[in-house]
Amino acid sequence: MIKYYVIIVTVIFVFFVIKSIKYNKNSRKKIRADLFDSFGGIPKRVYETDEIKKIRYYFDKSRIGEYYIDEITYNDLDIEGVYKRINSSGSSVGDEYLYKILRMPKLKKEDILSNENMYRYFSDNEERAIDIQEIFLRLGRTKKVPMYEFIYKLGEIENKGNFIHYFCILLLLSSVLLFFLNPVVGIFTFLGVLIFNIGIYYRTKNVIENYYICFKYLIRMITCGEEIIRTGNLGIEKEIVILKNDTEKLKDIKKRRFLISAGNDGSLINVFMDYIRMIFHFDIIKFSHMTNIMKNNTEAINELYETLGLIETSISVASFRKSLDKYCEPDFLEKREIEAANIFHPLIKSPVANSIKDSESVILTGSNASGKSTFLKTIAINYILAQSINTCCAEKFEIQISQIYTSMALRDNLSNNESYFIVEIKSLKRIIDSINENIPVVCFIDEVLRGTNTVERIASSAYILKYISGKNALCFAATHDIELTTMLENCYSNYHFEEKIENDDVIFDYLLKSGKATSRNAIMLLKSIGFDNEIVNNAKVMAENFVSSGLWKM
Fold this sequence. Notes:
The protein is α/β, with parallel strands linked by helices. It has 23 helices and twelve strands. Helix 9 packs antiparallel against helix 12, helix 12 crosses helix 17 and helix 13 (about 235-250) packs antiparallel against helix 17.
């Protein structure tokens, strides 16, 4: 009878093993097919609330003492949206590394070009890119805390030793021996020790929980590095050498790693191991031992993190390039000049491309909604892309490497009781303060000093813009004050956008044109959205009278 039960159990076991292998094989095929489908497409990932706050931790710690895209520029240009458009990472290290390099454009040509071979390798070898993307998907993401926070705070982990945990094990074994001497006393003692051990376990684990999660992720990072080494990709030889060195230094961390983690698949084995950990504290003891190893190898851990992040970011860049109708690698000039051919905005679905070539600062004029702000953002974003991932949304983009600042989408700061004008002049002052003789500055200003009266706005704007242009800076400024085009014509080039009026409707072509704007459309826009004719006609007459006489009259 027993023989038949053994046969039945064996058959059932074999059946489930085969079923599991088949399921894993089919699952991997589907994942690989999905990766091929998504490579070169627009990422569809939905980010959790406040996820970017976690992702930016690596950047926040890296930027200290270095040039970076400040918060005003970040918000003006929607760099978060640009980041999401590029990012196709499957792991936390890829997420965090890409965010950091977009916020910290490089200021030396050799640094900008240092990763270009890897971008090209993954662009030309899509299958190799997918192989490595699969590995990063298995690495996955940390849920609660940024991985780099764990590395950054590694030295702060307090190792109190394992005496209490060894004592718990000794108590448990003693209670088991007592059971054989006095079963009644033994079983009650055993239950009491069990409760005591579980209490100590959770009290300790609650203190180290976040580190504990990241420790398990570190083990996965080491495994990820080892798997990438085994791929033997020729396009990342330098990175593979670094990974070999770092994983060799950290190999002891992986020893008996099953004591720390057995996975999250809910299998009976893993559930059983969870109970074993609660009772015997094997994972906490292992964690304590590994803390010492990690503290002695923080440099290798940091290097492993950055190398993995660079590799996965390079795949995201390759995918981003493929997703664009056209792109170019920028050329970097030694002089203050810009040439952009058919440049476009990466976040606009059907963008209108524009071209510009100039060695002077630029004043943009034109009607409302004609495309001035979008053009400023297009140039600014492409500066950042050029100096961070050596990729531009254009047929040609030649610039001087510069620090990048904007003053565009400003708002009142109610928390500090600051009016729009105060916020605006502080924003402009930070640009002026950033100008230096060593590193050029390129700045983008939309509607200079819009928060004050016409007379003082024009006077102040003229001298602010003249001051910036006279320094080691290239300025792109959009304005409705047509007077500035004449006042600054000796130091600024004039460009404009315009519109056509057809059947009382305003039609925009969003094409950049040389020279100053000669048309206005604010009153026509009032009419096109349904304002009363009395308002529209009287406003039109008043405007025409002012142009001819220089006087306002109701």
